[in-house]
Amino acid sequence: MIYKSLIVLGIVIFMSACATSPMGRKQFIMIGDEQMNQMGVTSFAKMKTSSKVSNNPKARRYVECVSNAIINELPVNWKKQPWEIVVFDDDSANAFALPGGKIGVHTGLLKVATNQDQLATVIGHEVAHVLSRHGAERVSQQMGLQVALQTTDAISRSKMDSSGQQKTLMSALGLGAQFGVLLPFSRIHESEADLYGIDLMARAGFNPDQSVNLWQNMAKASGGKRPPRFMSTHPSPDNRIEKLSTYMPHAKQLQQQANSSRKKPHCQ
After folding, report:
1. Rounded to two decimals, what is the model's pTM?
2. pLDDT (tens digit per residue) in 101-155
3. Residue 103 forms beta bridges with which residues?
4. Which residues are CB-contacts of 68 (< 8 A; sequence separation ≥ 6)?
5. For residue 100, which phi and psi values (nearest 5 degrees)?
6. Is residue 132 a contact partner of residue 192, using CB atoms and an 8 Å limit?
7. pLDDT in tens, 70-83
8. Which of 69, 129, 151, 199 could crosslink 204 through cysteines, CB 3.0-4.6 Å?
9. Can 34 be counted among the known catalytic residues?
10. Given the residues 126, 137, 190, 192, the one annotated as active site
11. Residue 131's closest CA among 104, 98, 87, 82?
12. What is the spatial distance between Cα 119 and Cα 179, in angstroms, rounded to a whole number?
């Protein structure tokens, strides 16, 4: 009876967790924005105490200028959040955005993203993750996966002996879930954030052509060190550039519309 109840619970969860991303993809989300926002705010507060915040006023003004130009183009419900932008003194070429209106940029990124348009590419990408609710989707995937594994465990206990078959099955399911479900979705998230991200930066008046240059710079900075494709949570730079190039006419049109409305950022 336990496994039957779990199956029913799983069906109810999956049927009630449907959502749609800004790019039109169907999503499985079973955690609310309020919870995710609180998680983001708490995590960001910890980062500010455990990591070194940059005291370079020029870097802060530059990052804030690019970030605010993008924030101004967000849908009203996202734009009205009290966004917080922090530059961290860290040599890694990294940036992130968290639910709850938090943006962090490492000083190392400013050496790889060599102009405002390239920096806008990264910040647009990270903000796109938040607006697409990718964090909530990944948490939900893990929650749904846990229900599925518990259901399978209950079924296997009723049908298998104690010779080790059950342990083997659960180990195989865990591996299959990691490489067959969670990581592929992570690659989908990254590709989706790439495209939605250049939409956001182009609407702010930044040049989306520079997104290609940015990922070329990223590829050089990484020194070609990448995990095997099936274990990677990010698309390869070549695949990334190919998709961005295909999408570029649409992004350029958005930039032209923004420039016609006198949206021409000058962040230095």
Report:
1. 0.80
2. 999 999 999 999 999 999 999 999 999 999 999 888 888 777 766 655 555 555 5
3. 85, 97
4. 83, 85
5. 100, 5
6. yes
7. 999 999 999 999 99
8. 69
9. no
10. 126
11. 98
12. 31
Tell me how far CA of residue 245 lies from CA of 96, 189, 242, in angstroms: 24, 18, 5
Reading across the β-sheet that carries 95-98, which strands appear in turn?
84-88, 102-106, 95-98
What are the C-alpha distances in Å from 51 to residues 88, 116, 142, 212, 231?
7, 25, 28, 30, 29
Could you read off the pLDDT of 1-25 as tens digits, one per residue?
A: 544 554 444 554 554 467 888 888 8
pLDDT for the residue 99? 92
